[in-house]
Specification:
This protein has 665 residues and is of the alpha+beta class. It has 22 helices and 9 strands. A hairpin with a 2-residue loop joins strand 3 and strand 4. Helix 11 packs antiparallel against helix 12, helix 15 runs parallel beside helix 17 and helix 17 runs antiparallel to helix 18. One of its GO terms (molecular function) is phosphorelay sensor kinase activity.
Length: 665
């Protein structure tokens, strides 16, 4: 069906053009008819747009609508051409041509409200707005229906006062009409004419509501419709200033551009950057209007103050000179303002990046920095939502989160520190937008990294304070519950021995022996506490010697590379504890015959590697407390601890700790 409609529209153009060339311009002007070829060309544009839409979406209502109206418009143009030619040559078919063109052609008024109500998805709005849409379409239909049924003389009197053209007086203009009183038809036609502009209010409101509620792909599609509206307004204003013969050309241009915009908006809204296209169109539309106003002002002022001393050519030169001077200033300022309104701040990348850096420097709070970043990106790219998400689940949002989003990674020196969450858009960004977004993401990476480090520092401080307090609690408990009561008991036994010594030396000696045993146990407890604070072997034989003493029953080889003297005390303790835990695991679980511990110090880093030839880590091996403690000890100093199986068997524990020389004061 669509191919048939397209073929009808295409066939109407050459037929109308051949007829138009045979009709003198004076005869056509007497009938107030424009060349029908222009209408046929507009019909082809509509039918082509319908074919494009139906080719992508075979059941789309807009595609069918434009195909039908395209064939209708082309036939209307052909009827207009035949009406002019048949009245000139006295050929048959003039009454039918008049009926098609003048009566049925009024139905083309329905195209605009239908287009507004169905764009872009091809469905009428839901809820109460659907009922309003039906009412609007009913109001629009009043005039076409009235023109079909009303007598031609009444229709002529209400639309264009004056007599019917002489060339039409011999034509039967009322093949279809209802015989009602003239007063009734006059009222009906007046009311119907008033209803046409009123009927367009609801479709425009529907478009505005859809635009405000849209995002991503739908927003891009609706901007194509907005662009078509701006272009149509420019075309109408421009051709209004030209002679009447140009009106048909202006209408054709408007229809062609609108049909193209609708087809692109439905099928390929990302074909070009519609935001930039709309911004540039608005700029030139305003320039056109302002230039026209300035031209009138200059010409009027020159005529008022200089009077007859200037002829028309001199006034025109003054007007052109004034407009040329004002044009450059207006164009630059309007382009900047309109593009910022349509495109956003991204039209001035330097302003976006420098403003973001300045606001980040003035903000100390980490969450406020992320909110500043989100607002800057949202303002720059004119988007409805921006979220900045840090890897530790800190999310700062600006705007209402849409159902569909896309995330851009934020990386700092190769490390991913977060995500920039934006609404899902289909329009392709330009290379300039991509560069600006990359610059903003770099700023975001620095801000996110600062926030991440601040959070890590705070958590580190909390862990340190908690560890110190836990250690203090442990020492207090050990001293209070262990050493305190033992020392009190020893003191009591000594007092008892002193009293008993006066009566019996043997009893006193026995009591002192018990006190001696308790003191021995007390010394062992003190050694245990001291060992818990720092293994004594580290001070006695050094790190390498202390590790060698860990497993006398295991064949263990300890290798050292680099200068291990002057290591920070915390690094020595961490390396020893990690090695001790790893060797203990080898003894208990690995069933290994040999174990090798390698200590390498280079470039301010101490690497501790423990390998064995045991059974290795199985797939079902769970992470125990010992493995977790090794990783935590390394992380506390800013290091890493990796535990992995070896090939063909065994386990490898590699720990890297920052180990710069300890500074003594």
């Amino acid at each position: 069906m669509r191919k048939v409609l397209f073929a009808v529209a295409v066939a109407a153009l050459p037929a109308a053009a051949l007829i138009d060339v045979r009709v003198p311009a004076a005869h056509r002007a007497g009938l107030a008819l424009q060349p029908g070829a222009f209408d046929a060309l507009a019909g082809i544009a509509l039918a082509t747009a319908g074919m494009v839409v139906l080719g992508r979406f075979p059941r789309h209502a807009l595609g069918r609508l434009m195909s039908v109206f395209g064939a209708w418009w082309a036939l209307d143009g052909l009827a207009s051409s035949w009406l002019a030619y048949s009245t000139l040559e006295g050929l048959p078919g003039d009454s039918a041509a008049f009926l098609i063109y003048q009566r049925f052609g009024a139905g083309l008024l329905l195209l605009l409200p239908l287009l507004l109500l169905l764009f872009p998805e091809g469905r009428l709005p839901t809820g109460r707005w659907r009922a309003v849409s039906y009412v609007s379409l009913g109001l629009t239909s009043l005039l076409p229906l009235a023109l079909v049924a009303a007598p031609s003389r009444i229709a002529q009197a209400t639309s264009e006062p004056g007599p019917i053209p002489a060339a039409l007086r011999s034509v039967d203009l009322d093949l279809l009409y209802l015989p009602l009183p003239d007063e009734v038809w006059t009222v009906v036609l007046r009311v119907a004419q008033l209803c046409v502009p009123l009927s367009l209010v609801a479709p425009f409101v529907v478009v505005v509501r859809r635009y405000r509620a849209s995002a991503g792909l739908d927003r891009a599609r609706l901007r194509w419709l907005v662009w078509a509206g701006v272009v149509d307004l420019m075309v109408m204003l421009t051709f209004r200033l030209l002679p009447g013969s140009w009106t048909a050309i202006g209408l054709t241009v408007g229809v062609v551009l609108t049909a193209a915009a609708v087809a692109v908006g439905v099928v390929r809204p990302d074909l070009v950057d519609v935001d930039r296209l709309l911004g540039g169109t608005v700029v030139y539309a305003l320039l056109l209007a302002l230039t026209f106003v300035l031209d009138l002002v200059v010409l009027g002022s020159a005529g008022q103050y200089l009077g007859s001393r200037l002829n028309d050519g001199e006034r025109l030169v003054i007007a052109v000179f004034a407009v040329a001077i004002g044009y450059a200033q207006l164009r630059h300022r309007l382009q900047r303002l309109v593009r910022r309104w349509v495109v956003g701040d991204r039209d001035d990348p330097y302003h976006v990046v420098s403003g973001l850096a300045e606001r980040l420097e003035a903000t100390d709070d980490s969450e406020a920095q992320l909110l500043t970043l989100a607002r800057t990106v949202r303002r720059a790219f004119r988007t409805s939502y921006v979220g900045v998400e840090i890897t530790d689940a800190l999310l700062v949002e600006d705007g209402e989160r849409p159902a569909e989003t896309r995330a851009l990674p934020i990386a700092y020196r190769g490390e991913r520190v977060g995500r920039l969450v934006l609404p899902a858009r289909v329009t392709r960004p330009t290379s300039g937008d991509e560069r600006l977004l990359a610059d903003v993401i770099r700023q975001a990476a620095a801000a996110a990294r600062a926030v991440h480090l601040a959070e890590e520092l705070q958590r580190g401080r909390e862990r340190i304070v908690s560890a110190v307090e836990d250690e203090r609690r442990r020492l207090r408990r050990e001293l209070h519950d262990g050493l305190g009561p033992t020392l009190a008991a020893v003191a009591a036994r000594i007092d008892m021995a002193r009293i008993t010594a006066r009566r019996s030396g043997d009893d006193a000696d026995q009591i002192l022996g018990q006190a001696r045993q308790e003191l021995t146990g007390l010394l062992a407890e003190v050694r245990r506490l001291v060992h818990g604070l720092r293994p004594p072997a580290l001070d006695d034989v050094g790190l390498v010697g202390a590790i060698r003493q860990l497993a006398p029953d295991l064949t263990m080889r300890v290798e050292e590379h680099g200068d291990l003297t002057g290591l920070p005390a915390a690094v020595e303790v961490a390396a020893y504890r990690i090695a001790a835990e790893a060797v203990t695991n080898v003894r208990r679980h690995a069933r290994a015959t040999t174990c090798t511990v390698t200590l390498i110090r280079a470039d301010g880093v101490l690497n501790v590697e423990i390998t064995d030839d045991g059974v290795g880590l199985g797939t079902a091996t769970t992470t125990g407390v010992g493995l977790v403690s090794m990783r935590e000890r390394a992380a506390e100093l800013g290091g890493t601890c990796e535990i992995a199986p070896m090939e063909p068997r065994g386990t490898r524990v590699l720990t890297s700790l920052p180990a710069r020389d300890e500074v003594t004061v």
